[in-house]
Amino acid sequence: MDEQIAAESAKIFAKQGLDIRLGARVTDVAVNGDNVSVAYTQGDSSETLEFDRLIVAVGRSPRTEKLFAADSGVTVDERGFVFVNDYCATEAPGVWAVGDIVRGPMLAHKGSEEGVMVAERIHGKAAQFNYDVIPSHYLHPSRGRGGRQNRAGSQS
């Protein structure tokens, strides 16, 4: 994200009452009645703050443990992701995998584009998907851009 967009977004978030601490590492959490005490480190300093709510967002993982038979020829890694090549084809002939069960960000538009690529390849087209340019951001108020970041584009 361009630095200007990031700086403007940070200002808007601050006006909305958000206190964003980048690079902080939570070291302890304790429930104290109706409040939650959160201890964290940021750089060389440590601090403990009280909140009325705590949201923990640790990400997602694919649920593929019962998706394929053992003799299907499809390889699943230790985290549950289906192994595919650059075109989303698995090692099993005629079996393709896209979206949240393959490597990369778990984003709907990424999965949709992979699906389009697979459909085109099945129909004999030489389609491919560039994972370096997934142009979407989820912010409110809305911000947007497409393609490479200006910094990356000027270096190529």
Task: Describe the protein.
A hairpin with a 2-residue loop joins β2 (about 35-40) and β3 (about 45-50). This protein has helices at about 5-15, 110-120, 150-155, and strands at about 25-30, 35-40, 45-50. The chain has a three-stranded antiparallel β-sheet, with no helix packed on it. Helix content is about 20%, strand content about 15%. The chain has two domains: about 5-60, FAD/NAD(P)-binding domain (3-Layer(bba) Sandwich); about 60-145, FAD/NAD(P)-binding domain (3-Layer(bba) Sandwich). The chain has three helices and three strands. The chain has about 160 residues and is α+β, with helices and mostly antiparallel strands. The two termini are about 15 Å apart. It is extended and about 55 Å long.
Structural key phrases:
156 residues, alpha+beta, FAD/NAD(P)-binding domain, 2 domains, 3-stranded antiparallel sheet, 22% helix, extended
